[in-house]
Design a protein that fits this description.
Blueprint (H helix, E strand, L loop, with lengths): L17 E14 L2 E8 L2 E8 L4 H8 L6 E10 L12 E12 L16 H6 L1 H4 L3 H23 L3 E2 L17 E3 L7 E3 L5 H9 L4 E9 L11 E10 L3 H20 L8 E3 H8 L13 E2 L1 H4 L5 H4 L3 E7 L8 H12 L9 E5 L5 E3 L7 H10 L7 E7 L1 H18 L10 E5 L4 E4 L4 E4 L20 H5 L5 E6 L2 E8 L4 H10 L4 H14 L7 E7 H8 L30 H6 L10
Parallel strand pairs: 3-5, 6-9, 11-17
Antiparallel strand pairs: 1-2, 1-4, 2-3, 4-5, 7-8, 9-10, 10-22, 12-13, 13-16, 14-15, 14-16, 17-20, 18-19, 20-21, 21-22
The protein binds aspartic acid.
Length: about 600
């Protein structure tokens, strides 16, 4: 027998009991006649005591225990003289009379503590050690519970979990595919799914009515903190539903998860159109944890002899409340450098300081009178103490820059309180997005998204501007400025789907070759349907106030897409090349 209890379970009420514990040596300390060992397992840490006076031989053995040794001990629970209020087991310790070393351990390459000294790659190489650390372990347990609660909720709503294949067909639409050579069909490839999109729609045609799957998706994109080449979606689809049914069901799921996992009851989620989000927040995923919305001052600022504004498609700003006096010129210079960085790309930054004493100071004071500047202030209801920050330029770009500036100011001014969650639905995305470089439209969501019913007629237009304004019946769930999920009502009519493919630049033959199976299925009684997918890794990170999804994935990849532990990707043997009917690459020099 290895244990009667876990290292997290004993309390003062257990004092006097004889117990058996197994776990890892977190740390050991010799204090004169006593040796203390912190014994750790998944459930917690319990203090062990070895007494030199009463059991010298045992104590001598305990002194030789290294960090991360796996041991089994027997002893009696007793009250501690100096208690540790930060630990659930902090009132007790085990007076050990029996010690077995189950396995020794090399000295770990980084400390197994909440704050560790290991760099990212080192921690990933020894992921099994990293996962012993409390914060990472806690994240995985959180994730496990979240998937379980997701299944509970969706099961309660009549959803059925169905697996879809991982070896599918490559299509040029969307992100880059990971491909897998087929040995039995030399020269041909499968692709790993970017999402089960077409399969879940086919399941609706098949009459499954409510589908879900907690599923791996694969996208060969450049990596960032919130991206991994393989990630997990809570993927769902429903038949015979309106947008409203879907929003209600998945607002319900989100509420359920917040309540069960964090004990937080979220109020009803506000809704905002894509246009409004872009206008007020400069982003299609607005962070509603603070206000500071964008105000347009073009009508007041143009035509007054300041050429930069006169030529700009948009002159707009944000107002930072109450900081005019304490935001120094140095701060403003630094902020100007910040907006000029290539990642933001603004030409410059104009400010107006509404000082506490009623005076006004502005970087464009030469061009505008105090009265004019005060007029700008009215757009933001600016008062004494407020600071106006203005950007100008091409409309779409400038809005996005203002969105970034707003977030940066929120961060710099500490307006983002930890532990606050502000979810919202963003609705009515554009259906199509024009790509200047390739001279064609792309689907903003994906090619299976339905236009809003009232916009269907406009799909016959050949006018690019009309097509640009087409709205999709698509929605995103955003929490604290992060996109958690997205979905849409789908096209379920073959002719409309074909029309959409043609707007996206597919010839009839191309559409047939790539998506003929779906178009075919639509001819056999496809019900109206729609769905959504949540990014599970991201949801976990956001619910924990973090932005790195890696910390919620048991075995993540690094920035270059490498698994540091198993060292993948890796070359394959010549025989494998041959068997797959592939020509090996010429040797690298
Ligand atoms: N398949 C979509 C995605 O991966 C989600 C959906 O439309 O349901 O973004």
């Amino acid at each position: 027998m290895y244990r009667s209890h876990t290292c997290g379970s004993l309390r003062l009420t257990d004092a006097g009991q004889r117990v058996l514990l197994s776990g890892w040596v977190q740390v050991s300390r010799d204090l004169g006649g006593l040796t203390f060992v912190d014994l750790r397992d998944r459930y917690g840490i319990t203090q062990l005591v070895f007494n030199m006076d009463t059991r010298p031989e045992l104590c001598a053995r305990a002194r030789k225990l290294g960090r991360e040794y796996v041991i089994r001990v027997e002893g009696v629970v007793r009250e501690r003289t100096s208690k540790n209020p930060n630990r659930p087991t902090g009132d007790i310790e085990i007076d050990v009379d029996l010690l077995d070393v189950l396995n020794a351990s090399k000295v770990p390459p980084f400390t197994i503590e909440a704050d560790t000294d290991g760099g990212d790659d080192l921690r990933m190489k020894y992921r099994y050690l990293d996962l012993r650390r409390e914060p990472v372990k806690r994240n995985l347990l959180f994730r496990g519970k979240l998937t379980l609660e997701t299944r509970h909720y969706l099961d309660g709503q009549g959803f059925v979990e169905i697996e879809t294949p991982f070896l599918i067909k490559s299509t040029p639409e969307g992100a880059r595919d990971f491909v897998v050579p087929s040995r039995l069909n030399p020269g041909e490839f499968y692709a790993l799914p970017q999402s089960p999109q077409t399969f879940k729609q086919i399941l609706m045609v098949a009459g499954m009515d409510r589908y879900f799957q907690i599923v791996k998706c694969f996208r060969d994109e450049d990596l960032r903190a919130d991206r991994q080449p393989e990630f997990t979606q809570i993927d769902c689809e429903m038949a015979f539903v309106s947008r409203e049914d879907i929003l209600r069901t998945f607002e319900g799921l989100t509420r359920h998860l917040f309540l069960k996992l964090l004990g937080i009851g979220l109020p009803e989620f506000p809704r905002m159109s894509y246009d409004e989000a872009m206008q007020r927040y400069g982003s299609d995923k607005p962070d509603l944890r603070f206000e500071m919305t964008i105000g347009d001052i073009g009508h007041l600022a143009r035509g007054q002899g300041f050429p930069v504004f006169d030529q700009a498609g948009l002159v707009a700003g944000i107002c930072a409340k109450g900081i005019a006096d304490r935001y120094s010129n140095k701060d403003l210079n630094e902020l100007t450098d910040w907006v000029r960085r290539p990642q933001i790309g603004a030409g410059g930054l104009v400010y107006v300081r509404f000082n506490e004493d009623g005076t006004i100071k502005s970087s464009v004071g030469k061009y505008f009178t105090d009265e004019q500047l005060r007029q700008w202030g009215t757009v933001f209801e600016a008062g004494p103490g407020d600071l106006l920050l203005v950007l100008s330029g091409e409309e779409e770009k400038t809005r996005k820059q203002l969105g970034e500036l707003r977030l940066e100011m929120g961060r710099r001014l500490g307006l983002i309180q930890p532990g606050i969650f502000r979810p919202l639905w963003v609705l009515d995305f554009p259906l199509l997005e024009w790509d200047e470089e390739s001279g064609r439209f792309f689907a903003m969501h994906h090619p299976f998204t339905s236009p809003k019913p009232e916009d269907v007629g406009l799909m016959d237009s050949t006018d690019r501007e009309v097509l640009r304004r087409l709205r999709a019946d698509a929605y995103d769930l955003v929490i604290n400025g992060t996109e958690i999920g997205g979905g849409s009502i789908r096209i379920h009519d073959r002719a409309l789907q074909s029309r959409n493919f043609s707007l996206l630049g597919f010839s009839t033959e191309e559409a047939e070759a790539q998506f003929g199976f779906l178009l075919g299925a639509f001819e056999y009684g496809a019900p109206p349907h729609g769905g959504i997918a949540f990014g599970l890794d991201r949801l976990c990170a956001v619910m924990n106030g973090q932005n790195n999804i890696r910390d919620f994935i048991a075995f993540p990849k690094n920035n270059t897409g490498r698994d540091m532990m198993i060292d993948a990707p890796s070359p394959i043997a010549d025989a494998q090349w041959e068997e797959l009917g592939l020509a090996p690459l010429p040797p690298r020099n």
